[in-house]
Amino acid sequence: MRRDPLTGLLTRDGWNRAADRIIRRHRHAAVLIIDLDGFKAVNDTHGHEAGDAVIAATGQRLAAWCGENGIAGRIGGDEFVAVVRDGTRLTASLTDLRELLREPVDYHGGRLTVGASIGAAQAADQVPATREAAMRAADAAMYRVKGRARDGRRPAAPKTAPTDTS
Asked: How many whole angstroms from its chain centre is CA 80?
C-alpha cells in the first residue's frame, strides 16, 4: 500500500481498501474526516516548510489516536481520514482528538497552532452501510462544524445524525 511521504499515513486508495475491510468486519465502525482550520494562514505566514511540519505532526497525532482501534490516512492537502473499529463511544473520543490536534507544533523556536474540524459517522447508520456513504455523512458533519456547506452556503439539516465536533 502506498504511504504519504510527509506523514507516513496511507494514501487515499490504500486507506479506502483498509477502511472497507474494517467496516465489513466491525459492526460499530465509524469514519472520520478531519480538515485543519487555519492551515492556510500557517503556510502564508511561515512558508510551506512550516505547513509541512504541521501536516507531519497531525499525521503522527492522528495515527497515535487511532492506535490499534483504527487506521488513519491523508487524502490531500490538509484533509485526513480515519476509520475506527469501535465508534460506539466516539463523542468523548472526538473531543480528545480535537484537543490533541490543536496542540501547538514546535517549529524553529516558535509554535504553530491550527484547529481541526472533525466530522464522524457510523457506517452501520448509513444506507447503504458502506465506506462511501459513511464518508459522505462524515464530510457533511465536518462542514456543519465549519458552519458552511462545501459550496459556501449554510448547510441543510442532516437526514441522519452523524457525530460532529469542532
From this structure: 4
Distance CA 53, CA 108 (A): 10
Region 83-88 average pLDDT: 92
Q: What does the alpha-carbon distance between residue 26 and residue 157 come to, in Å, rounded to a whole number?
A: 28
Q: How many CA atoms does the CB half-sphere of 156 hold within 13 Å?
A: 5
- Domains of the chain, each with CATH number or no CATH: 12-147+158-165 (3.30.70.270)
What is the rounded average pLDDT of the residues 141-151? 76
Long-range Cβ pairs for the range 86-93 (8 Å, 24+):
86/26, 86/28, 86/29, 87/28, 87/29, 87/30, 87/120, 87/122, 88/28, 90/30, 90/120, 90/122, 90/163, 91/163, 91/165
At residue 165, does pLDDT exceed 60?
A: no
